[in-house]
Design brief:
The complex is a heterodimer of chains A (about 110) and B (about 240). With about 110 residues, chain A is an alpha+beta fold. Chain A has four helices and three strands, in the order H-E-H-H-E-E-H. In chain A, strands 1-3-2 form a three-stranded antiparallel sheet. Chain B has about 240 residues and is α+β, with helices and mostly antiparallel strands. Chain B is about 20% helix and about 35% strand. Chain B has a four-stranded antiparallel sheet with strand order 1-5-3-2. In chain B, strands 4-12-6-10 form a four-stranded mixed sheet. Chain B is globular and about 60 Å long. The N terminus of chain B is likely disordered. The chains are: A alpha+beta (about 110), B alpha+beta (about 240). At the A-B interface, strand 1, helix 2, strand 2 and strand 3 of A face strand 2, strand 8, strand 9 and helix 4 of B.
């Protein structure tokens, strides 16, 4: 597995919102999904993930509701709100701008 | 390997039943109105149950539903606070085993499992076919789940029919056997009128009818084999912490 990388400040919100775009997920499921999709490059520990979920919920971008896993275990599942969907569009736009800018700096080096 | 290390650290043998590191079990005094704030959580390596009935704790310990536990009636009304620390590195899937050790020690429980012929339901596909939406492919999240959207309102995601049968069993208080023959995973939105508050929801159908009209599935009542945990002996008062 690839060595995990430091997250750029602010990108955790984007990763969480994007992960919840398809369907609601519980906290551990969000972390697992990000780790799986990024091939282990981003490993989000509970110490970062849960405060971020609470912050995003406080901003009204996601909403947590209790549910049950197939195993019968209760868990809090988070879903994107309408405001969260709008924020995700904004975060994607910001990320593309940052990505383009960094690529330009890297191209300069050559 | 990680598990073996964790067990070694917590001083437990590999073959011995897994136990909590420390645990306290405290009886809860009955309230005047018979209402309790019940909480059953496992968070950050700590199990925290408040005012859980002994029967509810047994359900977690034996991984069965309420109707699968046979024993004295007082188990449903005797309530306890349980706090316990899970050994470092032990997965949550081992918690039932730890609870069984704790209950055996404090309540001197002896039990056996048997199969009884009990009323149950068979879950089959209705005449018009299933009305649920097949889940979008997401191999990274193969586990289904339901979200409680409110009384009588369940949102299902990535649910296998076996998982749905299990959820319906909890709602109906009877075993539900999956005979749908559907192998996929489904998303659904199920709204029904729970029996106890049906009068406040005149626009909704009872659960059995809602399953048919909203999911396109049918629940047929019959008798069949159900695994039951029989509590042969249990003390009313747990031993000291």
């Amino acid at each position: 597995m690839a060595k995990s990388a430091e997250l750029l400040q602010g990108t955790l919100d984007l990763l969480i919102l994007r992960t919840l775009e398809l369907r609601p997920l519980h906290g551990v499921g969000i972390g697992d999904r990000i780790e799986q999709v990024t091939g282990g490059v981003f490993v989000i520990g509970p110490g970062s993930l849960f405060p971020a979920l609470h912050r995003l919920e406080g901003r009204g971008w996601i909403k947590g509701e209790w549910g049950e896993l197939e195993s019968g275990r209760r868990a809090k599942f988070y879903a994107l709100t309408m405001a969260g969907r709008k924020q995700l569009v904004e975060e994607k736009r910001n990320w593309r701008r940052v990505n383009t800018a960094i690529n330009q700096v890297l191209a300069e080096e050559l | 390997m990680a598990m073996a290390t964790a067990l070694a650290i917590s001083g437990q043998g590999i073959d011995a039943p897994l136990r909590f590191e420390v645990a306290s079990v405290k009886a809860v005094e009955p309230t005047l109105d018979g209402r309790y704030m019940i909480r059953m959580r496992v968070n950050a390596g700590e199990l925290n149950y408040s005012a859980a009935s002994l029967k509810q704790i047994l359900q977690q310990a034996y991984e069965v539903r309420d109707f699968q536990i046979a024993g004295p009636d007082w188990m449903a009304s005797a309530r306890f606070d349980v706090r316990a620390k899970v050994p470092a590195g032990a997965p949550v899937t081992k918690i039932p085993e730890m609870l069984r050790s704790l209950l055996a020690e404090r309540f001197k429980i002896s039990s056996h499992s048997e199969t009884r012929d009990l009323p149950m339901y068979e879950l089959i596909v209705g005449k018009a076919g299933p009305k649920m939406k097949e889940s979008a492919g997401d191999p990274a999240a193969p586990n289904g789940f339901t979200i409680n959207k409110g009384p009588g309102h369940l949102e299902g995601h990535m649910m296998s029919m076996a998982a749905l049968a299990n959820t319906l069993a909890a709602l109906l208080g009877r075993q539900v056997a999956d005979h749908t023959g559907l192998a996929g995973r489904y998303d659904f939105d199920l709204q029904y009128a729970p029996d106890d508050i049906a009068a406040t929801m005149p626009d909704r159908l009872p659960l059995l009818d809602a399953v048919q009209s909203e999911l396109g599935l049918k629940l047929e009542a019959r008798k069949g084999p159900v695994k039951v945990i029989v509590i042969d002996h249990i003390e009313k008062t747990p031993t000291e912490n």
